[in-house]
UniProtKB/TrEMBL annotation:
PROSITE patterns reported for this sequence: G_ENGB (PS51706)
NCBIfam families documented for this protein: GTPase_YsxC
This protein's record includes keyword Transferase: no
Protein's name according to its UniProt entry: Probable GTP-binding protein EngB
Origin species: Halomonas dongshanensis
Length: 198
């Protein structure tokens, strides 16, 4: 699919406000500051489709984008998670919206989970993997900011994440990614294509 055709559709504060649950969509999730906005902007070749966060954790909305002028194929930008300065009550509310969306959304075909290559598989990341596992939904992990490590340490991190997730290897795939160097965009596009076509 031609991801640069992506266009903003709607922002939803809760599952209740999401567009009609038909067609296919893929969602992007990750700790705030993991590089999610930068990855969506790199994929779509748009500077500001997903806003890179000046204040991390501010985006509490679920943002929907259509692909190829077709509302039935969507990219979904989920709220970043884990920003320290957000009050506990608000964190719990976001967590509820995230789990509700991930568990209940029929049109959701796969989850792109972003993790800083230097700090992968946090407690939150594992919780997200758990939600996906509950419904046997595939997850594609982007180890982001790969340009921050030399080649050796970057592939060591990739291997380590793969081996830690070995028992899930029929549902989980992992790649290195750098929005800055535009590394890994083709691999990501191919994975999204298989999900959005089904
Ligand atoms: P989000 O909170 O997950 O949406 O993260 P952002 O996309 O806003 O990125 C958080 C910070 O990481 C920003 O300062 C970005 O410039 C930086 N960043 C994002 N992607 C990359 C990357 O591929 N390489 C490097 N070096 N920095 C990145």
């Amino acid at each position: 699919l031609n991801y640069p055709t992506a266009q903003f559709l709607i922002s939803a504060p809760t599952l209740h406000h999401c567009p009609s649950d038909s067609g296919t969509e893929v969602a992007f999730a990750g700790r705030s500051n993991a590089g999610k906005s930068s990855a969506i902007n790199a994929l779509t070749q748009q500077k500001a489709l997903a806003r890179t966060s000046r204040t991390p954790g501010r985006t509490q909305l679920i943002n929907f984008f259509s692909v190829m002028n077709d509302d039935a194929r969507r990219l979904v930008d989920l709220p970043g998670y884990g920003y320290a300065k957000v009050p506990e009550a608000v964190k719990i509310e976001w967590q509820q919206h995230l789990s509700e969306y991930l568990r209940a959304r029929h049109s959701l075909r796969g989850l792109v989970l972003l993790m800083d290559v230097r700090h992968p598989l946090t407690e939150f990341d594992q919780m997200m993997l758990g939600f996906a596992d509950e419904r046997e939904m595939p997850v594609h992990i982007l180890l982001t900011k790969a340009d921050k490590l030399k080649k050796g340490p970057a592939s060591a991190s990739l291997q380590q994440v793969r081996s830690r997730l070995k028992e899930w290897d029929d549902l989980v795939s992992v790649q290195l990614f750098s929005a800055l160097k535009r590394q890994g965009i083709d691999t990501l596009s191919q994975r999204l294509d298989t999900w959005l076509a089904s």
